[in-house]
Amino acid sequence: MGDSAGDVKTDLKFHGPIDGNVLAAMALARFGVDRMFGVVGIPVTSLATRAVSLGIRFIAFHNEQSAGYAASAYGYLTGRPGVLLTVSGPGCVHGLAGVSNAMANAWPLVMISGSCDQRDFGRGDFQELDQIEAVKPFSKFSVKATDISEIPNCVARVLNSAVSGRPGGCYFDLPSDVLHQTVTETEAERLLAAAEEFSHREVIHRVPNSQIEEAISLLKRAERPLIVFGKGAAIARAEGPLKKLVESTGIPFLPTPMGKGLLPDTHQLAATAARSLAIGKCDVALVVGARLNWLLHFGEPPKWSKDVKFILVDICKEEVEMRKPHLGLIGDAKQILESINKEIKDDPFCLGKSHPWVEAISQKARDNVAKMEVQLARDVVPFNFMTPMRIIRDAITALGSPAPILVSEGANTMDVGRSVLVQTEPRTRLDAGTWGTMGVGLGYCIAAAVASPDRLVVAVEGDSGFGFSAMEVETLVRYQLPVIVIVFNNGGVYGGDRRTPQEITGPYKHDPAPTSFVPSANYHKMIEAFGGKGYYVETPEELKSALSESFSARSPAVINVKIDPYAGAESGRLQHKN
């Protein structure tokens, strides 16, 4: 099915009294919402139906967890709040997975949940829960409409809060009695008009020019400068000024896993394949839209030099103050990079290809890539992780532009894929992210297909990661989304039963290992049950054929790739060995 933005019918007229469902839908449409994700039921089914009649596309899921992950990824890919709709009580609790994921990744999301009748709260009403209190630890802002007249203002505030400052997850509570209250058409329009003043983003303050000059001075004086960027730069749409800065100064760059693609992985100044050298030896690091958390080893020795000077660019003042960089530039990443470029233009500098630092990074990257290519060149059957990953890489590369959006989830599958699969365009990689969240795969796929209908979506999933949300393959088929799900099937978490003989003991020693699944599971048959296309592959030729056919068809498909169960290893954190 096609998917085009900007078709919200905000002028659709409802005659007679306007109830809370209609008013909420009108407010969402009026303030720019064009897509919603969720699971309907009492008391929000009418809200979803009314939203659809106003031109908002509603993508219905099988569980709120996957719908929440979809809404969070949609917020990242579009820069506008992804909206999640759930029922009350357990529906709200399930949706917290999406809200917390949005908070961890700093993506804009709004969860809207129905709740029990206010008069019956505390008496054991159907699905009763103090949802405002339940969401507080996981959200940046929450609000409850206690009367229908509050709905438009609440919608405007919650949408605005999701994108203001550092983006994050927000919550809007709609009691069932409020949804059934009514106002006149005239009163509805008055309430909507009054709420519009809250529907605009805050103005981001400009960084003082003295700080811009100090940042440039640090980069100029550095012997081994490095530019690091992450998904904060991606959501700020900072790729243009970032490219200009890198290419005008000749400074090597290092993306975080989801920063990949803002500049192509194939760029001559990319330091991804020389990561250990780059972060271990740099003396000044300009970090743009990336937090100095576990993904960047907290910016501390031994991974980083004890003398490195960080210039930290972040939208969040508290983040900068917590990290205590040498220099903090607080504001929008794109604006700050544009200011740096403007200042450099008057007094340019460039390291040049023959600069010792650039040469060292380039040589190390070439050496590490060459070593990896030796491993990738061999066709290993039964499959290890490298052989199918190379075949997938080559098939994706052959598609050209627009590049597919890659969804990567799993332990070994994600780790190997991060090194092998190449990103050449912005916001075309979605993975477990800051929280290392498993179960995001199918939700992210659906969000990507809805947000970027011109792109193919390719998911490379471990069988464990796939299992969290596998039922959503029915959703792919129902909406005919161009998503190809590739499952690396090695029989379990990390590869099935890895126990030593000494560990196989006790009264339940004949049970399957905690890490093992049914061997050689026919995951591809799941999508066939709903009318999609399934493939089972064991050889390079079979995989190449399945990829070629499914990529050309651009229809929902699952490719079940049989992997040697002993090919993987336990992986708890992202391991960077180059």
Automatic annotation (TrEMBL):
Under InterPro entries, the record lists:
DHS-like_NAD/FAD-binding_dom (IPR029035), HACL1-like (IPR045025), THDP-binding (IPR029061), Thiamin_PyroP_enz_cen_dom (IPR012000), Thiamin_PyroP_enz_TPP-bd_dom (IPR012001), TPP-bd_CS (IPR000399), TPP_enzyme_TPP-bd (IPR011766)
GO (cellular component) term, any one: peroxisome
Keywords tagged on the record = Lyase, Magnesium, Metal-binding, Thiamine pyrophosphate
Q: Thiamine pyrophosphate enzyme N-terminal TPP-binding domain: which residues?
A: 25-133
Cited Gene3D superfamilies: 3.40.50.970, TPP-binding domain
Q: Which residues form the Thiamine pyrophosphate enzyme TPP-binding domain?
A: 413-561
Q: Per the record, what are the reactions this protein catalyses?
A: an (R)-2-hydroxy-long-chain-fatty acyl-CoA = a long-chain fatty aldehyde + formyl-CoA; a 2-hydroxy-3-methyl fatty acyl-CoA = a 2-methyl-branched fatty aldehyde + formyl-CoA
Which EC class, in a word?
lyase
- Annotated EC: 4.1.2.63
UniProt domain Thiamine pyrophosphate enzyme central: residue ranges: 212-339
> Which GO biological process annotations does it have?
fatty acid alpha-oxidation
MF annotations from Gene Ontology: 2-hydroxyacyl-CoA lyase activity; magnesium ion binding; thiamine pyrophosphate binding
List the cofactors: Mg(2+); thiamine diphosphate
Do you know which CDD domains this protein is assigned to?
A: TPP_BZL_OCoD_HPCL, TPP_PYR_POX_like
Q: Which family does it belong to?
A: Belongs to the TPP enzyme family.
Function text:
Catalyzes a carbon-carbon cleavage reaction; cleaves a 2-hydroxy-3-methylacyl-CoA into formyl-CoA and a 2-methyl-branched fatty aldehyde.
* UniProt subunit comment: Homotetramer.
UniProt-recorded name of the protein: 2-hydroxyacyl-CoA lyase
